[in-house]
Specification:
The chain is α+β, with helices and mostly antiparallel strands. It is 28% helix and 21% strand.
């Protein structure tokens, strides 16, 4: 029996044992399906008609410009000009594809697309102009893409780049259907796990507002335990006035145990002699004193996508069509079919360009709200969350608390103990009910929390383990998942171990590495930054440099040197980044560079900005002022070198999260002599 089958079977047994009296757990939640793309599937991605080609993207375009890379592959294999291939976004009429997550698009989809395009090219050369084409798989080295022909490895015009600049690219919030109305679902200002519902509201005052349409009590599924109250208006500008006039009074039931936003998780509450529930590395460190003993606390963080989530829904003759900015149109379709009691064939979800996701637009929320309001209104309805709703009702990066200890003998780390407490990422509480989450905790843990927890160094006796805590704030995937927090604390501890024995941090790392690709990026970033010859300036502001490296999902590699400046008043600023990045075969170097730059900016946010203010019962952040993201003024000079350590593409979207934050933290330590252990780093 496969582990997944066993897991699903365990879920079924668990649900059966709960009994009919607890209807809330009577059915399993919709589970995302993640099929591996194949060459036969890829035939549905490319079509030919009268000398032109249509490439239907099997992935969501959310700013990573995967459309450009896929078009480069198509043009290369078809051996046609750039202007002959049109690109369209898929809907759920396409054969199911997996959600756009995990930096997988080029890694998993490039070869199937190349095989399909090569087979179509051969068919056209044989004079076949009608009917379906059969894929004739060929060795990878015979594909033009992997031989780096045509458009591969070159700069290309960004697909829809001109449309974005001129405002013609369609996001979900741009969709307008004839007779479109506008909706919003209000929820209590309370954490999602607390039971809440509307108790009373001023319907008469709302009806007096010009443009008001309706108040909807049956407004779609709850978010967690938060029941909503829907409103519909003729124009989007009316919605805020209706909300104010309604003056909803909310009923909220908070658990008696309470919740401390300052310390939702604390690794030191678990006695050191007790082993956490989930083991990642079990090397059995020897007892004795430690040269490094550090505790790190990392807070909640929002995704900070510039575009709040939005959807347009329209019912017609019992069928539902939804235009959505989502990372998984098929999962949204399945959820909507389940929610509204119709077949999946009766639901079509059209994917739209997404204005940033970073793992945050994977669950069904605004889509169900729009569908529920549309069904009542008998008209198309658009729902777009406000920034305050994004911060209050989306899921967020979970907080984590880490204790890392290391012992150094003869200049080498001999013993290592890393334990952490965090909340759920893969089995997010935004989707998985409590008892089912307990089952996953006991059976397989949470791979998102564990990601990057295995230190990429030679350590004879290394242990890493974690515990999971369900929190009243929904948590889930955030760019890189656990790779960011784990990379930060691991690279900080390795840096401190080097300092403890007076070793150069870069040389110390190289002495602990037996992976050629990791050593290559580390040596490259050392050369780029003149690491061995650079000296801290004798005058002016304090300046420090830090280095870190990491492996993402065992396939992609990066190393970063960061240079920070500390002003006399304590303010921190990034002066420069150097980065060496190895994601294997590079289709479009400009776009990989852009991903690297984006990750480096995320690293700045991670260390200096990211937090989510909350009180004991609610998230109080409402704007980017409350939950800040890096700004243009935070942007330093960046020098990036791309290394192709393998002929296969291995993914670029999140790799630097494994080392970028660590490099910044180590630079702060070098500049100030103080090791940052609580984040974000405060300068006053």
């Amino acid at each position: 029996m496969r582990r997944r089958s066993f897991l699903l079977g365990s879920f079924g047994t668990l649900v059966a044992l709960i009994g009919a009296g607890t209807a809330v757990y009577a059915t399993l939640p919709v589970i995302p399906k993640r099929p591996t793309p194949g060459t036969d599937d890829a035939l549905g991605w490319i079509a030919h008609h009268e000398g032109r080609f249509v490439l239907t993207l099997p992935r969501i375009e959310m700013g990573q410009n995967i459309a450009t890379a896929f078009k480069q592959i198509a043009c290369t294999e078809l051996n046609v000009g750039w202007e002959t291939v049109d690109v369209s976004f898929h809907d759920t009429g396409l054969a199911r594809v997996r959600s756009t997550v995990g930096s997988e698009s080029i890694m998993l989809f490039a070869e199937p697309l190349a095989q399909a395009c090569a087979s179509l090219r051969d068919a056209l050369m044989r004079g076949e102009r009608q009917g379906l084409v059969s894929v004739e798989p060929r060795p990878r080295e015979q594909l033009r893409t992997f031989a780096r022909h045509g458009e591969i490895g070159r700069t290309a015009e960004i697909v829809q780049g001109r449309e974005i600049v001129t405002g013609n690219a369609l996001y979900a919030s741009d969709i307008r259907r004839p007779g479109t109305l506008f909706g919003r679902v209000l929820r209590a200002p309370a954490m999602a796990e607390y039971v809440s519902k509307p108790r009373s509201w001023n319907a008469e005052a709302a009806r007096a507002i010009p443009g008001f349409i309706a108040i909807v009590e049956d407004c779609g599924p709850d978010i967690g335990n938060a029941k909503g109250l829907g409103i519909i208006a003729e124009r989007p500008g009316v919605l805020d006035r209706v909300v104010e006039a309604l003056d909803v009074v909310w009923q909220t039931e908070e658990p008696s145990t309470g919740f401390s936003p300052d310390a939702p998780v604390d690794v030191d509450r678990c006695p050191l002699e007790e082993t956490p529930s989930n083991i990642v590395m079990d090397g059995g460190p020897q007892p004795g004193s430690w040269d490094v003993d550090l505790k790190f606390d990392i807070p909640f963080a929002a995704h900070g996508a510039i575009e709040p989530r939005a959807a347009v829904a329209e019912w017609a003759q019992g069928k539902l069509t939804v235009w959505a900015g989502t990372q998984d149109a098929f999962f949204i379709r399945d959820c909507l079919a389940d929610t509204f009691g119709v077949s999946t064939e009766a639901v079509t979800v059209q994917s739209c360009r997404v204005g940033g996701s970073f793992g945050g637009k994977t669950t069904c929320t605004v889509e169900a709200e729009a569908a529920a309001l549309s069904r009542v209104a008998e008209a198309p309805v658009k729902v777009q969350w406000t920034r305050a709703q994004e911060l209050a009702f989306a899921f967020h990066r979970p907080p984590s608390s880490h204790r890392i200890r290391a012992r150094v003998e003869d200049g080498q780390i001999s013993d290592w103990d890393h334990r952490q407490v965090s909340s759920h990422i893969i089995f997010t509480s935004a989707v998985v009910p409590s008892l089912m989450q307990q089952a996953t905790d006991a059976l397989i843990g949470d791979g998102g929390v564990a990601r990057g927890m295995s230190a990429p160094y030679i350590i004879p006796r290394a242990k890493a383990a974690y515990d999971l805590v369900r929190l009243p704030v929904h948590t889930g995937p955030w760019r890189g998942l656990g790779a960011g927090p784990n990379g930060l604390v691991i690279e900080s501890a390795v840096d401190e171990a080097a300092l403890a024995v007076g070793a150069d941090p870069l040389a110390f790392r190289l002495a602990h590495i037996n992976d050629e690709r990791l050593a290559a990026v580390l040596k490259a970033v050392g050369d780029m930054s003149a690491w061995t010859t650079w000296r801290n300036p004798a005058y002016g502001p304090r300046v420090g440099r830090g280095v870190a490296c990491g492996i993402y999902k065992d396939v992609s590699y990066a190393a970063v040197v960061a240079e920070v400046e500390v002003a006399a008043d304590g303010r921190l600023g990034l002066r420069e980044f150097w980065c060496a990045h190895d994601c294997g075969l590079v289709i479009n170097p400009d776009q990989v560079n852009a991903q690297c730059e984006g990750n480096l900016m995320w690293s700045i946010g991670f260390v200096l900005h990211d937090h989510l203010p909350m009180e004991s019962s609610r998230i109080v952040a409402e704007t980017f002022i409350d939950a800040p993201i890096p700004r243009m003024e935070d942007t330093p000079k960046m020098t990036i070198k791309l290394i192709e350590g393998t002929d296969s593409p291995t993914g670029a979207g999140e790799t630097i999260m494994a080392c970028g934050p660590g490099a910044i933290a180590n630079a702060i330590r070098a500049a100030t002599g103080i090791r940052p252990t609580r984040f974000p780093v405060r300068t006053s």
